[in-house]
Amino acid sequence: MSFNEGSQLDSSQVEDRRGMSTGVKVGGGIGGGLLILVLSLLGFNPSLLDGLTGAGEQPPAQTQPAGQGGASQCRTGAQANQQLDCRITGTVNSLNSFWPDYLRQYGKQYPRPKTVLFTQRTQSGCGPATTEVGPFYCPADRTAYFDPGFFQELVTRFGSSGGPLAQEYVVAHEFGHHVQNILGTIDYAQRDPQGPQSGGVRVELQADCFAGIWAHYASTQPTSSGGQPFLKPLSQSDIRDALSAASSVGDDRIQKAATGRVSPESWTHGSSAQRQKWFLTGYQSGDLNKCDTFSGRV
């Protein structure tokens, strides 16, 4: 999904920590990191909640000052079409324009989440995190965390399309967890974390569905200031990109590639088919009520 070239981006909605020391030390080699990445891709990472009990607390991270390069230099939709950090920024802007009005019709307020870009490691309200964790949302500090290098991993390691909506889907999925935090459904992941019909899988699939709802409206939703939408209408190629990303991070596909077999009892995010199904459910309906992944089989 391409941006309207003249749309104005608000870089203040993204905190860029790249290149700055965080003081966080996380153990484990590449094997352990890969395991974490496989288990936590594109979703709410239950292990990060250990930080809520006080474990792993670290000093606050240093941040990149405003106006000194990075995402702070993102100004227009034309830049979002060319630069990944600006595409993330523009997608964040679009999501923050869409969800407040949409949730208001359901009687819900939308406190704007924070967004952090980082490399290697950073500190979150849910404890320390590294690049290997992948994108995640922390409910404790209501912040979505992204290492932009992950988006290349999505293509080279997991076989996703590299198209814009494949990347924007990732951002929208994490914001879907913020919507769940508002609605109160995110807690199901902790009550029943594993298995093909588990609460953990249902939470992830609902976040996929919420990402689809955003995609349904993104090209028609004016900016919060009443300007033209950030994004142009979707093409069939855009939809294929999003479905490619959803498929590439299905539990069954990742397990098959990593171990040669599929173990549904350990699923935490859902199969490739499930993830594609629920993104399409949100996209085709644009209806929050259609994203009830907690009733019946998923």
TrEMBL record:
The transmembrane residues are 26-44
Q: Does the keyword Lipid metabolism apply?
A: no
GO cellular component entries: membrane
List compositional bias (Polar residues) regions by residue number.
1-12
| Residue ranges, compositional bias (Low complexity) | 55-66
Instruction: Extract the ranges annotated as region (Disordered).
Output: 1-20, 53-75
Coiled-coil region(s) at which residues? none
The record's keywords, sorted A to Z, are:
Membrane, Transmembrane, Transmembrane helix
Q: How does it sit in the membrane?
A: Single-pass membrane protein
Task: Give the species this sequence originates from.
Answer: Arthrobacter woluwensis
Q: Which InterPro entries match?
A: Uncharacterised_pept_Zn_put
**Where does it reside?**
Membrane
Q: In the UniProt record, does the keyword Membrane occur?
A: yes
Report any Pfam family annotated for this entry. Zn_peptidase
Q: What is this protein called?
A: Neutral zinc metallopeptidase
